[in-house]
Design a protein that fits this description.
Elements: H1 11-25, E1 54-56, H2 79-82, E2 85-88, E3 96-100, E4 109-114, E5 120-129, E6 132-138, E7 144-148, E8 152-154, H3 158-162, H4 165-180, H5 183-189, E9 196-200, E10 205-209, H6 211-214, E11 224-228, E12 235-238, H7 240-243, H8 245-253, E13 256-260, E14 287-292, E15 302-312, E16 315-326
Parallel strand pairs: 9-16
Antiparallel strand pairs: 1-13, 2-5, 2-8, 3-4, 5-6, 6-7, 9-10, 11-12, 13-14, 14-15, 15-16
Helix pairs in contact: 4-5
Length: 328
């Protein structure tokens, strides 16, 4: 079981340690500036309203996740076979993904890929070195090279993602898991390659849960650290059901607004402690946004969650749950 951050004060240190680890592993190159979590966002408007959202009274309503008829395309049945394109993930702007002559960090670096690189084609060759997965890619100017597979994600067009019935099913299954406190259903939704990361954005606090952990998360008495107490700046500790679930339920099970690959609500809700944007290191990962206006929960602050979804072999998996909160 992993707890990546224990307090806001450790967040920047944690980011630095991650960057140093990647540097030592040969996965990224050093950059003159310090490693900062600057943010960007890719926006795809789906059925826009004046606030970029449509409200849904019933849990699981797919209305805000539909696209015009001309853009209705299904996800490829087998992304690795039918869709040859991949994109870089988990690399922040200013860093680069190394392309090596062969599989392994002991191989020479022959090129680098930008943090937001897309349209990467795999040759089909794979290898595993010391437990790390490597894949061979075709280089844009010709030739081939090898990259660490953890830094690539299947590239799914925004239109196909936002219009897919499979994505709507994922949302409904997640809502059902919360309603019924069904860990088995939740575990089946978790990304088998990356687990599930819950990230409280304004506190820079995160939890990472494996599918095995989510299977019993509703009944587990294990105490997690989830943010800090505003009164004394001390870590908030408690079970998932006591600390995290009460912040998920009002948004996903209440009268919320939904959007796909958009966080437009930030423009009409006033200031917050952090920019309400999708993390730049996840810019190539599609996401759904769920927004609860101020005054509709026990807190007077507005509250939102985003679901980062990775599609593996045509099946969407829940990879990130990122919370945003602020004052009107």
């Amino acid at each position: 079981m992993i707890n990546r951050d224990t307090s806001y004060r450790l967040a920047r240190l944690g980011s630095l340690l991650v960057w140093l680890a990647l540097l030592l592993a040969g996965c990224v190159l050093p950059y003159p500036d310090d490693y900062r979590a600057t943010l960007t966002v890719q926006v795809t408007e789906i059925n826009p309203t004046p606030t970029g959202f449509e409200f849904s009274h019933s849990a699981g309503s797919p209305a805000a996740l539909s696209t015009p008829e001309a853009e209705q395309t299904s996800l490829p049945a087998e992304l690795e076979g039918d869709s040859p394109y991949y994109a870089v993930i988990h690399v922040a702007t200013g860093n680069f993904l190394n392309v090596r002559q062969g599989a392994g960090t002991d191989q020479d670096i022959i090129q680098t890929l930008d943090a937001n690189a897309r349209d990467i084609k795999l040759t089909g060759r794979r290898d595993e070195i010391n437990g790390d997965r490597w894949v061979e890619i075709n280089l844009p100017e010709g030739g081939t090279g090898w990259v660490a597979a953890d830094f690539l994600t299947p590239q799914v067009p925004a239109g196909a993602f936002c219009g897919s019935a499979r994505i709507r099913t994922l949302v409904r299954d997640f809502q059902r898991a919360l309603t019924e406190k069904d860990g088995e259903t939740l575990a089946a939704l978790v990304n088998p390659q990356r687990d599930l990361t819950l990230w409280r954005r304004e506190m820079s606090s995160s939890l990472t849960l494996t599918a095995q952990e989510t299977n019993t998360i509703f009944t587990s008495t294990r105490e997690w650290i989830w943010g800090t107490n505003p009164e004394n700046d001390e870590p908030r500790t408690g079970s998932f059901s006591r600390l995290v679930l009460p912040e998920l339920e009002p948004v996903f099970l209440g009268q919320h607004a939904q959007a796909c690959n958009s966080l437009e609500f930030a423009t009409s809700t006033g200031p917050t402690s952090l920019p309400v944007t999708w993390p730049e290191e996840l810019s190539n990962l599609n996401y759904l946004a769920f927004y609860l206006p101020a005054g509709q929960s026990e807190s007077q602050s507005w509250l939102a969650w985003t679901m980062g979804v990775e599609v593996l072999n045509g099946q969407p998996y829940l990879t990130y749950l990122i919370q945003y909160a602020g004052e009107n």
